[in-house]
Amino acid sequence: MQSPPSALRALPIPPIVKPRLLRHLLLPLPIILLMLACGYAAYYLSEQIGIRALADTGERQLELHARAVESEISTHTYLPSLLELEASVTRLLVMPTEYRRERVNVYLEGLNQRSGSRAIYVLDTNGRVLATSNWRDADSFQGEDLSFRAYFRDAMAGKPGRFYGVGTTTGEPGYYLAHGLRHHDRIIGVAVVKIRLDPLERRWERARLEAFVSDENGIIILSSDPARRLKAVRPLDEATRTRLASSLQYHWTRLDELQPIDRRPFGRAELLSLPSQDPAGGGARPIRYLAQSLPLNDSAWTFNLLTPVQDVRREAISHGMLAAVAFALLAFLLIAWNERRKVLATRLAAREALQQANNQLERKIAERTADLRASNERLRGQIRERRLAEETLRKTQDDLIQAGKLAVIGQMSTSIAHELNQPLAALRTLAGNSVRFLQRGNLETTSSNLQTINELVDHMGRITASLRAFARRSDDTGEARLGKAVDAALFLLHPRLERTPLNIHRDFADVRLAIDQTRLEQILVNLIVNAIDAMAAQRDRQLWLEGRADEDRYLLTVRDNGPGIPPALRTHLFEPFFTTKPGEQGLGLGLTLSASLAAAAGGNLSVRHPDEGGTAFVLSLQSLAPTEKPADE
């Protein structure tokens, strides 16, 4: 309801409304600013701590992998000086002959295979290769002039030759160890061992380690990333480039510079941003690394370790976001606590009213519970009565089904008596004849009569057995063979079929159905008897038994070519005691019982009225999987 305008003008406006509204509008701004400041502080601290942790881990990895490089080199340092002890090498250098060269070649080949080096060769004082371990290869060093190499000059000066370079013959990089071979206190030649350091790079790749080694010229000679190999880590002036190009140490490589996008110091290390090619085709994108370096012992090389810091940065961003969210949550909790404090008084005042309402509700619940108990007792009584009625109905239905069977047997009693009287008369005649023939000594005729008597007894036994099986009580469950049920029904109706002959067309499979065998036979007897009665007055009598599968069910159609059922009577076909047969030929229970038996087995019985005439009853039952035959059948 709306208040009158005069009442609205009479109410004074509280002076606290505007300050409260202003405070609610301005409060989110400082909270947002404090949340951003808290998140940035957490991000900065987390990033610094994470990078320091990476630096500590990197120091240990740096020392470990640097020593591994030194160990890989020092493993082969003894080999050049070992050749000084080989007499065949000394004799070759003092007096070269083809025979001595071949012997030294074979010796160097075996030594190279045992040591695992790339190549071992011997140079004379002019720098020409006299013998080499790869003398059999097409790219052999035999006869090459390597006097321009720095390791040769150092070895001739009596110093250990240590040199990394790209081979002029094979274009293959390697590390050269040279030693001056002495004879009578003078150097008569140089022994050189070439080793490959590729296993180190493959080891770094397997460990997913981003590292490289730079030599004394600032050139990357080993790298886990092939794109960085033979690049300069510092700017090279023209004089240095000319000197390196003339020495052919790096063959004809351009020696481009590895240029960081961004660089800033971080303690004893530095933070670098290097371009990296995006595999998805998005072009170059910068990757930030923590770069740490360590000089190698006994060489002018430097081992460099690059540790990506993207994970640290992502973790720092997550920490910053968590800190901001935590601050926002704390602020929200404080505001909520303040609001809760304001409403506590209202809740305390409403508690008494709530208690009173609760008392009234409990009283109503008690009253309602008593009513429900009374209703439950009435329902239990009704359930007991209904169960008793269902039991009575089931018993009545079973009695009705049995009565239907007996009614069918009673209808066939005249035919059955005739069917039995003929064999009985024949039995009496054959028995009397057998006595006379036996008295005459005609044993052959007597034996033939006894065989005929045996067959007639078997025939009468089959008739009585079929009647006993058809008349016995059965239940709703079980399984039946369709072919067996059809044969049994036709056998029971054989006397009727002799008096009223008809053409039977069978088109169905011998399937297994979920119904008792006797009940299926009773349904088929009722349907076939109805068809015979319907076609009794006509000459052309045709009966079709057609079956087809429909998913997990099987449909059997019993169709005749009789006159059909008038439209006015079709709605009453399945009603009890309704019959279209004249006089006392039927009780009107056949179709009712058949439909009940089908429904009790989980199926149904329906009727169709074809346009070409006649009547078709469709029996639908659950089909069962076929049983497996024995393996020896």
UniProtKB/TrEMBL annotation:
<keyword id="KW-1133">Transmembrane helix</keyword>
<keyword id="KW-1003">Cell membrane</keyword>
<keyword id="KW-0175">Coiled coil</keyword>
<dbReference type="InterPro" id="IPR004358">
    <property type="entry name" value="Sig_transdc_His_kin-like_C"/>
</dbReference>
<dbReference type="GO" id="GO:0005524">
    <property type="term" value="F:ATP binding"/>
</dbReference>
<keyword id="KW-0997">Cell inner membrane</keyword>
<feature type="domain" description="Histidine kinase">
    <location>
        <begin position="415"/>
        <end position="625"/>
    </location>
</feature>
<dbReference type="Pfam" id="PF02518">
    <property type="entry name" value="HATPase_c"/>
</dbReference>
<keyword id="KW-0902">Two-component regulatory system</keyword>
<keyword id="KW-0808">Transferase</keyword>
<feature type="transmembrane region" description="Helical">
    <location>
        <begin position="316"/>
        <end position="337"/>
    </location>
</feature>
<dbReference type="Pfam" id="PF00512">
    <property type="entry name" value="HisKA"/>
</dbReference>
<dbReference type="InterPro" id="IPR029151">
    <property type="entry name" value="Sensor-like_sf"/>
</dbReference>
<feature type="coiled-coil region">
    <location>
        <begin position="344"/>
        <end position="378"/>
    </location>
</feature>
<keyword id="KW-0597">Phosphoprotein</keyword>
<dbReference type="GO" id="GO:0005886">
    <property type="term" value="C:plasma membrane"/>
</dbReference>
<dbReference type="InterPro" id="IPR003594">
    <property type="entry name" value="HATPase_dom"/>
</dbReference>
<dbReference type="InterPro" id="IPR017055">
    <property type="entry name" value="Sig_transdc_His_kinase_DctB"/>
</dbReference>
<feature type="transmembrane region" description="Helical">
    <location>
        <begin position="21"/>
        <end position="45"/>
    </location>
</feature>
<keyword id="KW-0418">Kinase</keyword>
<keyword id="KW-0812">Transmembrane</keyword>
<dbReference type="InterPro" id="IPR036890">
    <property type="entry name" value="HATPase_C_sf"/>
</dbReference>
<protein>
    <recommendedName>
        <fullName>C4-dicarboxylate transport sensor protein DctB</fullName>
        <ecNumber>2.7.13.3</ecNumber>
    </recommendedName>
</protein>
<dbReference type="InterPro" id="IPR005467">
    <property type="entry name" value="His_kinase_dom"/>
</dbReference>
<keyword id="KW-0067">ATP-binding</keyword>
<keyword id="KW-0547">Nucleotide-binding</keyword>
<keyword id="KW-0472">Membrane</keyword>
<dbReference type="InterPro" id="IPR033479">
    <property type="entry name" value="dCache_1"/>
</dbReference>
<dbReference type="InterPro" id="IPR003661">
    <property type="entry name" value="HisK_dim/P_dom"/>
</dbReference>
<dbReference type="InterPro" id="IPR036097">
    <property type="entry name" value="HisK_dim/P_sf"/>
</dbReference>
<dbReference type="Pfam" id="PF02743">
    <property type="entry name" value="dCache_1"/>
</dbReference>
<dbReference type="GO" id="GO:0000155">
    <property type="term" value="F:phosphorelay sensor kinase activity"/>
</dbReference>
